[in-house]
Q: What sequence folds into this?
């Protein structure tokens, strides 16, 4: 059963991160089950923080491709990047580190795709400019465990427009729990939808303004978003996914069931035995 092109590899498996925080002995076999399932094309690589690597590699079974987050910065990323199972490192910009110093250290990271988590401070324009014209990618934090960790529509729209205009592919992390913009009933947090993000990228590629992107990010009607996705032809899907690479999610089940409910994936995919959170 084939996953449509717009959704292939869209969901990186970040099960061990909050709020899911699945223990490694459960997360590792769950990831292997996802990669054997009918919906496997939806699932990207397993995401693990650099300090957890030794514990991960002590788990039984064959290794699989890893995305390693380096919260301490480029030196931590460089130490992880040379391993055969590490396909990508996602590098935080340490607080207070000057942009020139960060990029000088980042050049020492070899052997894996480099993704830079762009900070939400005055360094953001310089970081995006420094990524332009390189093989490095960007990552934006779209939520977290506190309300202030969620950028509003205007901030995220400006960030998306900046990287699309600069030709820098990006990923997202945290907060994209559902396909459609929503208010979390338990926390009250305003959460972005991953389809909203995907379609905001389509807007940016079409040359629309940051204000128009913000309106797309604020759309709460799933039927409207799903119809827009259906209207994307192959060339537009390829263009959008070349810019919006994936997002990390602590639950594969949530995006899967949302896409089925919107009629964008076959219902049989959500019935596959072994769907795990």
A:
């Amino acid at each position: 059963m084939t996953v449509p092109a717009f959704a292939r590899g869209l969901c990186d498996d970040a099960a061990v991160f909050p709020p899911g925080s699945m223990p490694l002995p459960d997360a590792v076999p769950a990831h292997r089950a996802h990669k054997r399932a009918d919906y496997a094309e939806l699932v990207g690589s397993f995401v693990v923080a650099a300090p957890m690597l030794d514990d991960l590699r002590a788990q039984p079974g064959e290794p699989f491709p890893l995305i390693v987050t380096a919260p301490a910065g480029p030196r931590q990323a460089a130490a992880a990047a040379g391993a055969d199972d590490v396909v990508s490192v996602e590098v935080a910009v340490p607080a207070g580190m000057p942009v020139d110093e960060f990029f000088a250290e980042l050049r020492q990271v070899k052997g894996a795709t480099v993704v830079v988590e762009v900070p939400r401070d005055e360094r953001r324009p310089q970081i995006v400019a420094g990524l332009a014209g390189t093989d490095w990618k960007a990552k934006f934090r779209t939520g977290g465990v506190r309300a202030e960790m969620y950028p509003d529509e205007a901030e995220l729209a400006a960030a998306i427009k900046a990287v699309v205009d600069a030709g820098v592919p990006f990923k997202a992390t945290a907060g994209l729990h559902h396909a459609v913009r929503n208010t979390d009933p338990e926390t009250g947090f305003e959460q972005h939808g991953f389809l909203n993000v995907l379609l905001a990228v389509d807007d940016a590629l079409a040359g629309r303004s940051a204000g128009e992107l913000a309106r797309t990010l604020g759309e709460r009607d799933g039927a409207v978003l799903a119809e827009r996705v259906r209207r994307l032809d192959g060339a537009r899907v390829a263009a959008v996914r070349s810019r919006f690479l994936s997002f990390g999610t602590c639950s594969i089940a949530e995006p899967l069931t949302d896409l089925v409910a919107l009629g964008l994936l076959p219902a049989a995919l959500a019935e596959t035995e072994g769907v795990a959170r």
The radius of gyration is 18 Å. The first strand starts at residue 11 and ends at 13. Strands lie at 11-13, 43-49, 66-70, 86-92, 113-117, 137-141, 170-173, 182-183, 190-191, 244-249. The chain has twelve helices and ten strands.
